[in-house]
Specification:
Blueprint (H helix, E strand, L loop, with lengths): L7 E6 L5 H10 L6 E3 L2 E6 L1 H10 L5 E10 L9 H10 L12 E8 L7 H20 L4 E2 L6 E7 L3 E7 L21 H10 L2 H4 L3 E4 L6 H10 L20 H18 L6 E6 L2 H13 L9 E5 L15 E5 L10 H18 L4 E6 L2 H5 L3 E11 L2 E10 L8 H4 L12 H21 L3 E6 L7 E6 L2 E7 L7 H19 L6 E6 L17 E6 L2 E6 L13 H10 L4 E5 L5 H8 L4 E6 L2 H13 L11 E5 L2 H7 L4 E6 L4 E2 L8 E2 H14 L1 E11 L8 H6 L1 E4 L17 E6 L6
Parallel strand pairs: 5-6, 5-7, 9-10, 9-12, 10-11, 12-13, 18-19, 22-23, 22-25, 23-24, 25-28
Antiparallel strand pairs: 1-3, 1-4, 2-3, 4-8, 7-8, 13-15, 14-15, 16-17, 17-18, 20-21, 26-27, 28-30, 29-30
């Protein structure tokens, strides 16, 4: 029996979670009688089986051949594992395995619950191998931990230590093409496993898209699978220095692999799209594709710097699309909330562009994967190094058409509510008046009622298909029980008129706020929802704070900014949740800069941007956020802006701000500083909610000032036209 057909035991290791997929792959390579263990598959087979795994396995980490087993005697109480490893190593003649002139390295893996200094234990195992050579041939091999000719893998167990020859040498995930790295890359064998689990081959894809391609691993692994390119075709292996290596057998397997690849390369490839918001990643992807030997395939690969919000028209109708990506979960975005927003935004884009198509998306938390809108979703948990990752597979659900609530609303039939008939009639009338306008303008969030009747001092705001009801705290002269009863009547009428249930109505009591009290958390319920305004998806919180994250009275101003922002550098001071900046960005602004003293609201701002597919994770990015006092920030910088929006609070005494801010007292200084940062042909929009506000005469004298309040108040606030005032301010010499 020759060496190629003699049967031996082999271990094939893999990342945790890959065992089942690896076992399926090995059977496809002709391996029989496998056994599955955590982190490895074992089988008894031929050397040809082992060589084929080294050449063709896309999922394995290492191919090991157990050579020697050292059983442990338990006669002593305190185990000296390092000495056991030495004794096991010296008890075998390693000169039968490799020549003394070869270099070698030892990789030690210790089973759980075994306590040992692995560095010292590895050193003692090495001593045992060297001493074995000295006893057998009088010569000793050298250690080379970086590029050894022979790699030994030792499993230190509770009952025995197993010494293996690592036929793979370097880990099999190292294909040799990744010459340029990016942050948090996924290992090549894990990428291949995801493509296999996602059924790339079976999808008959016409388009393969990775919009956050990093260093291009998914694109390259897809190319290798579709062109029948063996992962081991151009790399070096650990068996080359082994005395039992069958060179002729290996060369025949290699020749067969080369021929299969050449034949497959004659077949047409799908159209690949590799996008990333980071230009360095775009460059790395191109360079790695060339390093992998696929330069000739670049004609069918579009590699471009793009954000999620900047996808081209894929013309995917009637085509099969395979979507796969590894988003920058956690490492750069930092917190779970931002990560969830990223996945929500990604899911919305997929539903819009690729309904009913196959997708595979990596997440670092199950909660992130859960927001992806997939039909019949599947989940695979793997270990990418020491980090657990979760991969969601499935077919993308088509996007649901979201219409303004008032479009389908009709006046409701209900029994009169004694004590609230007038209120119900007024609310119904308001909704009928607003309906045509809201439907025509596509308005999803608006005010339905604002203390129109003296006895019902509440504000009723519609956010999508939910209501935010604010009770203005009654004067102290009003009996609290009477006020409570009247408010409960109002709630009953609101439910009856709108047809919405209790779970869609969120209640707060609002009193006059000063300073930081307006930012004080009112609840910990955290009911956050996504609403639509123009092109923007916006996160609102209907429970935790008095304000929801979206000032409805400034809707028309935000939409105005969206229309005017294209190509401009936009600055938003006192940016709150930066919804004005978001509209500017979606309107095509060259850049946006948002400044606010509250980190809470700046983080919320970033979530809004990420939700809309806009990148916020680099300091030099197009969209920047600064936690700072606006006065200090204006004073310290020199950048010029084409459009500035300022909507400051009426009063503030935040603990981060030394002193107080008063809109009437301080607006002159604020506007003058802001105008210093405005380009000569730029526009500053200034607004505030202080009813007694008067613009300083110096501003009126020195700049072109036009009050535009009426243009910035929507139909839903016409009943309360003093809700805010707004001005358009430009440098002298420009038409106001």
């Amino acid at each position: 029996m020759n060496s190629s057909s003699r049967l031996s035991n082999y271990w094939v290791t893999c990342a945790d979670g890959l065992e089942t997929l690896l076992e399926e792959e090995l059977k496809g390579l002709g391996v029989q009688n496998t056994e599955r263990f955590p982190g490895r598959i074992t089988f008894k087979g031929s050397l040809e089986n082992a060589y084929r795994i080294c050449m063709w396995s896309r999922l394995a980490s290492r191919v090991l051949m157990p050579i020697h087993t050292h059983e442990i005697e338990f006669s002593h109480d305190a185990r000296d594992v390092a000495e056991e490893l030495y004794e096991g190593a010296i008890s075998f003649d390693w000169s039968l395995i490799f020549a003394p002139q070869s270099t070698f390295a030892i990789r030690l893996h210790v089973e759980r619950e075994i306590k040992v200094n692995t560095q010292f234990a590895t050193l003692r195992a090495k001593d045992g191998v060297v001493d074995s050579f000295m006893e057998a041939v009088g010569k000793r091999p050298s250690i080379d931990t970086k590029s050894p000719e022979i790699t030994m893998y030792i499993l230190a167990g509770k009952k025995e230590h197993t010494y293996c020859l690592d036929l793979s040498g370097d880990s099999l995930h190292k294909r040799g093409y990744r010459q340029y790295m990016t942050d948090a890359p996924i290992k090549e064998n894990l990428a291949a496993a995801i493509l296999q689990k996602g059924q790339l081959l079976e999808s008959n894809a016409d388009i393969i898209l990775d919009p956050m391609c990093g260093s291009g691993t998914f694109i390259i692994e897809s190319l290798m699978i579709l062109t029948d390119r063996a992962p081991g075709l151009v790399r070096r292996f650990g068996f080359n220095g082994w005395n039992g290596h069958n060179h002729e057998l290996w060369m025949s397997i290699k020749a067969e692999a080369a021929e299969r690849h050449q034949t497959a390369m004659t077949q047409p490839l799908p159209q690949f799209y590799a996008f990333d918001a980071d230009w360095e990643a775009v460059k790395a992807t191109r360079q790695n594709i060339i390093a992998a030997g696929f330069e000739s395939a670049l004609d069918c690969i579009k590699i471009e710097e793009r954000t999620l919000n900047d996808w081209p028209d894929f013309n995917a109708e009637g085509k099969n699309v395979f979507f796969v990506t590894n988003p920058p979960y956690g490492e750069r975005l930092g917190d779970k909330a931002s990560n969830r927003s990223l996945y929500l935004g990604l899911s919305a884009l997929l539903q819009k562009n690729f309904p009913n198509q196959k997708a595979a998306v990596i997440a670092s938390q199950v909660e992130q994967a859960d927001v992806l809108a997939f039909n019949d979703p599947q989940l695979l948990r793997l270990m990418n190094g020491k980090l657990p990752i979760y991969i969601r597979f499935g077919k993308i659900k088509p996007a649901a058409v979201v219409r303004p609530f008032l479009e389908s609303w009709q006046p409701q039939q209900f029994e009169p509510i004694e004590g609230a008939v007038e209120f119900a009639n007024r609310l119904t009338k308001n909704m009928q008046t607003l309906k045509k306008w809201a439907v025509k303008e596509g308005i999803h969030c608006l005010r339905l009622y604002d203390a129109d009747l003296p006895d019902f001092n509440v504000a009723v705001d519609l956010y999508g298909e939910r209501l935010h009801v604010q009770e203005y705290a009654p004067p102290k002269i009003i009996d609290p029980e009477k006020a409570k009863k009247r408010f409960n009547l109002a709630l009953a009428a609101i439910r009856a008129v709108t047809g919405l249930g209790r779970d869609a109505i969120f209640i707060k009591t609002r009193s006059r706020q000063e300073g930081k009290a307006q930012y004080t958390k009112q609840s910990t319920a955290s009911k956050r929802f996504i609403v639509q305004e123009g092109k923007a998806k916006i996160l609102v919180n209907l429970t935790d704070y008095l304000d929801t994250g979206l000032f409805l009275d400034h809707r028309q101003m935000r939409l105005r900014i969206a229309r005017e922002a294209k190509g401009k550098h936009f600055l938003n001071l006192y940016s709150y949740t930066s919804t004005a900046s978001l509209h500017a960005a979606l309107g095509g602004a060259a850049s946006t800069t948002s400044v606010d003293l509250s980190n809470t609201y700046l983080n919320w701002s970033k979530e809004n941007f990420v939700l809309n597919g806009l990148t916020v994770d680099h300091a030099d990015e197009q969209h920047q956020f600064f936690s700072s006092d606006c006065f200090e920030w204006l004073k310290e910088g020199h950048e010029q802006y084409d459009m500035i929006f300022i909507d400051p609070p009426t009063f503030s005494n935040s603990k981060k701000f030394y002193g107080t801010f008063d809109i009437q007292r301080d607006h002159l200084s604020l506007i003058k500083r802001a105008m210093n940062r405005l380009t000569s042909e730029g526009t500053l929009y200034f607004s505030n909610n202080y009813r007694g506000f008067e613009m300083d005469e110096e501003i009126l004298a020195f700049f072109n000032v036009e009050e535009i309040t009426s243009e910035t108040i929507g139909l839903d606030f016409k009943r309360n036209h003093k809700i805010h005032r707004a001005w358009k301010i430009q440098h002298p010499g420009l038409d106001a």
